[in-house]
């Protein structure tokens, strides 16, 4: 990927310094969750700038006052988590698929934040992850999970949101924060290093009192509806490539 290569090249003299500190956060229990998040956030901001990616985030004021909430965004690509790591003012962990859990740097980041690994082919293990996340949220930790289960590969169009992912929120009785990503597929999925603006909208949360009588499939439909409306209301800020000439 050209953009990842650009990030590494432009940060070559700082990369080892920040990688060392993230590894340190991942391996030492005496380093707090908050300190780990600060190191990862600093690294992410530098990497995004080096990769010529601008994060245009809105709606942080919609985040609940108290910690113990779950972010539910649409899933566009491998860059999605980096958008949240730069823009979210509150520490959070995330749920990552088993296939990506041991990629270098991502592995150290997930360990440093106490993120959870989900095997999508193992229903029992997946439900255990949902239960663990609910228990952590009850303790006041914030999480991010993608309700589509996989990236859409359809640009700014969303896939069906799976009701099962919302069981964690129901069990924790916590606020659900819908989040709309726009053009987050471009940085890593497009073989280019052109400047890119990725938009993120933190939408108004659904509190337990609002969804307590809804089925998880109904919650999923409502969250998807809100995200789709936000995407439709905010067009891309990136110019399209000119058509190829024969």
Automatic annotation (TrEMBL):
<keyword id="KW-0444">Lipid biosynthesis</keyword>
<keyword id="KW-1003">Cell membrane</keyword>
<dbReference type="Pfam" id="PF01553">
    <property type="entry name" value="Acyltransferase"/>
</dbReference>
<keyword id="KW-0472">Membrane</keyword>
<comment type="pathway">
    <text>Phospholipid metabolism.</text>
</comment>
<comment type="similarity">
    <text>Belongs to the 1-acyl-sn-glycerol-3-phosphate acyltransferase family.</text>
</comment>
<dbReference type="GO" id="GO:0006654">
    <property type="term" value="P:phosphatidic acid biosynthetic process"/>
</dbReference>
<dbReference type="GO" id="GO:0005886">
    <property type="term" value="C:plasma membrane"/>
</dbReference>
<protein>
    <recommendedName>
        <fullName>1-acyl-sn-glycerol-3-phosphate acyltransferase</fullName>
        <ecNumber>2.3.1.51</ecNumber>
    </recommendedName>
</protein>
<keyword id="KW-1208">Phospholipid metabolism</keyword>
<keyword id="KW-0997">Cell inner membrane</keyword>
<keyword id="KW-0443">Lipid metabolism</keyword>
<feature type="domain" description="Phospholipid/glycerol acyltransferase">
    <location>
        <begin position="69"/>
        <end position="184"/>
    </location>
</feature>
<keyword id="KW-0594">Phospholipid biosynthesis</keyword>
<dbReference type="InterPro" id="IPR004552">
    <property type="entry name" value="AGP_acyltrans"/>
</dbReference>
<keyword id="KW-0012">Acyltransferase</keyword>
<comment type="function">
    <text>Converts lysophosphatidic acid (LPA) into phosphatidic acid by incorporating acyl moiety at the 2 position.</text>
</comment>
<dbReference type="InterPro" id="IPR002123">
    <property type="entry name" value="Plipid/glycerol_acylTrfase"/>
</dbReference>
<keyword id="KW-0808">Transferase</keyword>
<dbReference type="GO" id="GO:0003841">
    <property type="term" value="F:1-acylglycerol-3-phosphate O-acyltransferase activity"/>
</dbReference>
